């Protein structure tokens, strides 16, 4: 089976999607503040942090969006003529250097600052099998679960795509999306990525299968209608309507994931919200999606993977050095404390991207080409 390619390779990069990546990765960081800042050291002592903790109830939801984005770009850009081994090798080179780096940094830092180091559980992260059903702990840097779930899901879809007819692939993928989202919604919770339903189906892996599958169908739709989308030039009224839809959807997602505790408990509605926003940003017919399609968004987006994998480390160190040992600063300046923390998270992620991720990936590609 072969997949149709977009006619213009230069149009396959979406800078506005990088902006979405950056915004939603910061929201995910909010989810983990409770483990090193807002709840661990100041539970009940700073009213603002107690309020934020409730607002961050669904701040982990954007992880589902990253699975969808990853699936979309996988099926839009991957060369399916390459072998399965080559595909898997390239993905490991892309994903694993940062995992190994942050694990090493965490180990060395723990020798001087008591942030803790889970020797046994971190082995699962180093082997890239953190969330495939063989462990019920997350290790120190819990973000690694996303990498292992995404890697094994991509490998499955890649191999199935090569051997199956398109009709069968579409059917199997659609069934997996439905079954996996049903499994996830029925076992919803912030820690449910660690659970195995029926002692077999890992929730984190199911979330990856569902999201990547959705990304596949969006890629199919985009490839099929890319020429028509490019040729479509809406009038001013339609552009305003597209812009209103874009602003409404992104505002709704930000509001419901980090600005208040959503009363409607089926958070799958947020996934639907994102899918519509994602499609609108792909077609770029509204003013918001066009304005955000710039080099600044591109720069921010390039650093999101590094920010995602390193933010747990930064929060843990910051929690010990500032929130515990220098607690007067966050007590008297709670907002400034969070601003400083997020600036450090972003800067550390950017430095890691340019000083570790890029050089390591380049070296390994040359070494194993």
SSE diagram, text form:
Elements: H1 15-31, H2 47-55, H3 62-77, H4 84-110, H5 119-126, H6 144-163, H7 166-186, E1 196-197, E2 201-202, H8 203-231, H9 236-258, H10 268-283, H11 287-291, H12 295-302, H13 304-324, H14 328-332, H15 334-367
Helix pairs in contact: 1-3, 1-12, 1-13, 3-8, 3-10, 4-6, 4-13, 4-15, 6-8, 7-8, 9-10, 13-15
Write up what this structure looks like.
The protein has 369 residues and is mainly alpha-helical. Helix content is 70%, strand content 1%. It has helices spanning 15-31, 47-55, 62-77, 84-110, 119-126, 144-163, 166-186, 203-231, 236-258, 268-283, 287-291, 295-302, 304-324, 328-332, 334-367, and strands at 196-197, 201-202. The chain has a two-stranded antiparallel sheet. Mean pLDDT is 89; it is low at 1-10.
Summarize the structure.
The chain has 369 residues and is mainly alpha-helical.
Unreliable spans are 1-10
One letter per element, helices H and strands E, the order comes to: HHHHHHHEEHHHHHHHH
General shape: globular
Fraction of helical residues: over 70%
Number of strands: 2
Major sheet, described briefly?
A: 2 strands, antiparallel
Strand order of the largest sheet: 1-2
Q: Which structural class fits the helix and strand makeup?
A: mainly alpha
Whole-number mean pLDDT:
89
Q: Give the termini distance in whole angstroms.
A: 26 Å
Q: Percent of residues in beta strands?
A: under 5%
Count of helix runs: 15
Q: Which value, in Å, is the CA radius of gyration?
A: 21 Å
């Amino acid at each position: 089976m072969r997949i149709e390619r977009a006619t213009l390779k230069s149009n396959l990069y979406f800078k506005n999607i990088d902006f979405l990546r950056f915004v939603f990765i910061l929201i995910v960081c909010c989810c983990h503040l409770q483990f090193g800042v807002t709840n661990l050291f100041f539970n009940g002592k700073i009213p603002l942090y107690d309020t934020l903790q409730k607002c961050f109830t669904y701040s982990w939801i954007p992880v589902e969006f990253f699975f969808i984005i990853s699936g979309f770009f996988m099926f839009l850009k991957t060369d399916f003529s390459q072998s399965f081994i080559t595909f898997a090798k390239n993905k490991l080179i892309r994903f694993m250097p940062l995992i190994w780096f942050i694990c090493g940094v965490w180990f060395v830092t723990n020798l001087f600052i008591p942030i803790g180091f889970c020797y046994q559980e971190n082995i699962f992260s180093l082997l890239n099998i953190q969330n495939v059903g063989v462990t019920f702990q997350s290790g120190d840097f819990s973000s690694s679960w996303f990498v292992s779930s995404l890697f094994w899901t991509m490998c499955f879809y890649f191999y199935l795509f090569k051997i199956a007819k398109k009709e069968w692939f579409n059917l199997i993928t659609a069934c997996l999306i439905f079954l996996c989202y049903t499994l996830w919604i029925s076992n919803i919770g912030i820690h449910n990525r660690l659970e195995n339903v029926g002692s077999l189906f890992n929730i984190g892996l199911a979330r990856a299968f569902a999201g990547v599958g959705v990304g596949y169908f969006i890629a199919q739709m985009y490839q099929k209608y890319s020429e028509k989308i490019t040729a479509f030039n809406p009038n001013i009224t339609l552009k305003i309507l597209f812009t209103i839809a874009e602003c409404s959807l992104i505002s709704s997602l930000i509001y419901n994931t980090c600005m208040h505790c959503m009363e409607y408990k089926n958070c799958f509605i947020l996934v639907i919200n994102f899918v519509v926003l994602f499609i609108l940003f792909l077609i770029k017919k509204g003013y918001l999606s066009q304005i955000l399609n710039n080099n600044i968004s591109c720069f921010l987006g390039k650093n999101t993977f590094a920010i995602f994998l390193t933010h747990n480390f930064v929060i843990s160190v910051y929690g010990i050095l500032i929130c515990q040992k220098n607690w007067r600063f966050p007590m008297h300046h709670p907002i400034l404390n969070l601003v400083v923390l997020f600036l450090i998270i972003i800067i550390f992620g950017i430095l890691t991207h340019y000083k570790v991720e890029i050089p390591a990936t380049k070296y390994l590609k040359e070494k194993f080409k």
